[in-house]
Amino acid sequence: MVKINGQKTAGQNDTERKIMEAAEEMFLRNGYNMTTTTMIARKAGVTHAMLHYYYRTKEQIFIKVLDRNLDELLASFHPVMKKDAPFWETLESGISTHFDFLMKHPELPTFILDTMRFNPELLESYKPRIRETLLRITGFHFSIIKDEIAAGKIREVDPEQLLLDIITLNLSAFIMLPPARKVFTEISDTRNRQILENRKKEIIALIKSRLYGKL
Amino acid sequence: MVKINGQKTAGQNDTERKIMEAAEEMFLRNGYNMTTTTMIARKAGVTHAMLHYYYRTKEQIFIKVLDRNLDELLASFHPVMKKDAPFWETLESGISTHFDFLMKHPELPTFILDTMRFNPELLESYKPRIRETLLRITGFHFSIIKDEIAAGKIREVDPEQLLLDIITLNLSAFIMLPPARKVFTEISDTRNRQILENRKKEIIALIKSRLYGKL
DNA sequence: ATAATGTTTAACAGCTTTGTTAATACATCG
DNA sequence: CGATGTATTAACAAAGCTGTTAAACATTAT
């Protein structure tokens, strides 16, 4: 299938690439079960036999899509905080970076949530890697937060709850708001961007007062 | 089938009721598309022809399930705040009540989200009622919050953002955490309750410091 | 040119889905 | 009892799904 200089471009040929792109788009938007191989093929402009020719089964092409997104998936948990620079500045920029990342991959949270919910077996082989990443990150942040509490610099919060606050608030903007808007208010692209920016500011303000607000 | 005195039981007979119960359980857990009429019938212990006999189509039985849950659905937006009693006390109890309500109907948020996402047309007829409720509630809360800000009692927050904070935080605990636990950590029922209680406390603390914390 | 290899199509197989229907069992009531 | 309307079953039909296959077509190498 891979032709080097005759006709086809290096790597994948056109059909294979179009199928993968269509599959990625559909799976990300609708999840594994709600996407049919026929739909993917139609969107790619080929017969569905081609999908099976290149990727064998629906599950295998899904796994390939998962692979393509796994690094980003893990990155999505990642950069809530960085180094041992000033605590709040790095935390704030961490939340912001995380939110910005989600703005660039707005469908990723729902995609992962769907897969966890309906097809956890497809994540089985990734579990160790995900778990390991997660533990490393939480461990890292927990210790920094505890240090900061011990030094009396921030309020006494449960580090686990704080991370949950940040992550769920950020993800909510991408998991819950789009369907809600689908029912309640249709909205333009720029307006959407604006709303998300406001949301980001609010989330940061929320976390800041949780840590530094004196009651 | 089951007659009590040679008469049918008042209202629904046993089969009809069992089908409805099975349908409600399945639709709430898996949504419209991921539930098949055959699965419902099997769970109810009848042939799937009975489902069509009593409810005609899958869509019609789904609508009936939606009806049965609509009041609760609307209630789920409802009691974030009550009257003109002391502001924070009522807000706190409102958040708490809302959270407790969700604990009693933990599948409702995901159910509605699913329906908004994949079958918004099935919500079409409920839109006016939902919109009206929503507007009434937001209008009510906005004015109270604005009054409180004007009186200098709480920090200057965007009321819309504040309600989004509360609602998304509460819903997150039921939409995002269960699938996450499915993948990362299986957990007992009492432990789950404990986690949710902690989460509730954290959410309340978060909102409180947002409103009253001095930076 | 021709053989070998790779790509694409159309048709089909087997399964599952929603929904219908004809036949049958059943209860109730006159 | 027998007539009548209801409840139930099994079988079926049409459509869509995933996946396979044989044959046609294209490309490359010999």
Structure, explained:
Two copies of one chain form a homodimer. Chain A is an all-alpha fold and 215 residues long. Chain A folds into two domains: 1-56, Arc Repressor Mutant, subunit A, CATH 1.10.10.60; 59-212, Orthogonal Bundle (Tetracycline Repressor, domain 2), CATH 1.10.357.10. Chain A is 73% helix and 0% strand. Chain A has eleven helices and no strands. Chain A has helices at 14-30, 37-44, 48-55, 58-77, 87-104, 108-118, 120-123, 127-150, 159-175, 177-183, 189-212. In chain A, helix 1 packs across helix 4 and helix 5 packs parallel to helix 9. The longest helix of chain A is centred in the middle third of the chain and has 24 residues, at 127-150. The structure holds a DNA duplex (30 and 30 nucleotides).
